[in-house]
């Protein structure tokens, strides 16, 4: 049985790209249906993320003229990540698999066919990984690379050069649905789910129309979520800094005492310097300790599930 697929596409002020993207997406889906790779009930679900332009009227129009197109409109702009989540959760009930792809179709639609092949082979998560980021502006490319490295150094499992172009099986979706957190960073969260996963090549194109909806501010907020949602390591760095300062203050103490004995300093300087460094290090240390507790509260308050069951082999009571 081929899977019933839903292609979820978040749209924020995409009136310029939407008609063209909708054509491409539905031609693609028709092809997949005729090849028997997905069931005829498969759909495209456009999620309107509180757009201020004609995005929603266009989606409504597409829905009324094209059987393959559904629409979901959010009450306001909640951001890329939450919009994707809304679409996936809405589609979860009736889909065997979900593919998420940006409405500007910068990602390689043909890679979805490969994703479906991987799904048929038994993979639950298939990531689209950018071959080359040459289509991205220089600044975006370098900041992204630095960010991936930073994440790695903090022990966050994230897929290099993967944005939010991916396929999730129903089982992976059900697992994802158990994460109630508000600060969503799907690129970090999904690798944590476990399950069999693999990657396919994604050849990035330049935006055909409209401009990037990711302002610098939105990008920075996403980056902060990408780190603070997964690790409290920055808090440990405060402790490390406190310890380093304490060490420096010991060295300073030696220097200050020597200067005092040798009468190299003005009166009052020694005690001032010593207390400055000492209090500084104690403050940092105690902040770090308090931070550790806050970090624990932060992790606990998310109420993330502890595990996901991949398979359950169980005999019925009356099987014996
Ligand atoms: N998007 C969204 N809500 C937002 C910002 C962006 O749903 O607040 C959508 C946007 O319509 C697009 C996708 O997220 O489908 C990626 O945005 P964009 O292409 O502007 O980002 P870039 O490719 O430049 O990183
Ligand atoms: Mg884009």
From TrEMBL:
Entries under Pfam families matching the protein: Glycos_transf_2
EC class: transferase
Keywords, alphabetical: Glycosyltransferase, Membrane, Transferase, Transmembrane, Transmembrane helix
Entry membrane topology: Multi-pass membrane protein
MF terms in GO: glycosyltransferase activity
Claim: Transferase is one of the keywords in the record: yes
Annotated ranges, domain Glycosyltransferase 2-like: 6-175
Main location: membrane
UniProt EC number: 2.4.-.-
TM annotation in the entry: 237-258, 270-294
A single GO cellular-component term on record: plasma membrane
PANTHER family attached to this UniProt entry: PROPHAGE BACTOPRENOL GLUCOSYL TRANSFERASE HOMOLOG (PTHR48090:SF1), UNDECAPRENYL-PHOSPHATE 4-DEOXY-4-FORMAMIDO-L-ARABINOSE TRANSFERASE-RELATED (PTHR48090)
Protein's recorded name: Glycosyltransferase, group 2 family protein
């Amino acid at each position: 049985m081929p899977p019933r697929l839903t292609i979820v596409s978040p749209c924020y002020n995409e009136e310029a790209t939407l008609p063209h993207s909708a054509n491409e997406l539905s031609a693609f889906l028709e092809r997949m249906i005729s090849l028997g790779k997905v069931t005829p009930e498969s759909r495209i679900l456009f999620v309107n993320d509180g757009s201020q332009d004609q995005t929603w009227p266009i989606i409504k129009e597409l829905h009324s003229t094209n059987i393959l197109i559904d629409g979901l409109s959010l009450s306001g702009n909640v951001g890329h990540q939450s919009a994707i989540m809304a679409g996936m959760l809405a589609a979860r009930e009736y889909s065997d698999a979900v593919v998420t792809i940006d409405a500007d179709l910068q990602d390689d639609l043909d890679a979805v066919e490969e994703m479906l092949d991987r799904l048929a082979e038994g993979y639950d998560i298939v990531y689209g990984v950018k071959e080359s980021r040459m289509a991205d502006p220089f600044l975006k490319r370098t900041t992204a690379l630095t960010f991936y490295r930073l994440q790695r150094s903090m022990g966050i499992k994230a897929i290099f050069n993967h944005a939010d172009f991916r396929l999730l099986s129903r089982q992976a979706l059900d697992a994802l649905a158990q994460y109630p957190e508000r600060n969503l960073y799907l690129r970090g969260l999904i690798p944590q789910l476990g399950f069999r996963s693999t990657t396919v090549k994604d050849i990035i194109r330049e935006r055909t129309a409209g401009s990037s909806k990711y302002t610098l501010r939105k990008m920075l907020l996403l980056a902060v979520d990408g780190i603070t949602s997964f690790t409290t390591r920055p808090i440990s760095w405060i402790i490390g800094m406190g310890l380093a300062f304490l060490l420096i203050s010991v060295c300073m103490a030696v220097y200050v005492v020597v200067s005092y004995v040798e009468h190299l300093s003005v009166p009052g300087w020694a005690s001032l310097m010593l207390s400055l460094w000492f209090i500084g290090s104690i403050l940092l240390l105690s902040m770090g300790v308090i931070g550790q507790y806050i970090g624990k509260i932060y992790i606990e308050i998310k109420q993330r599930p502890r595990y996901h069951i991949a398979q359950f082999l169980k005999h019925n009571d009356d099987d014996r």
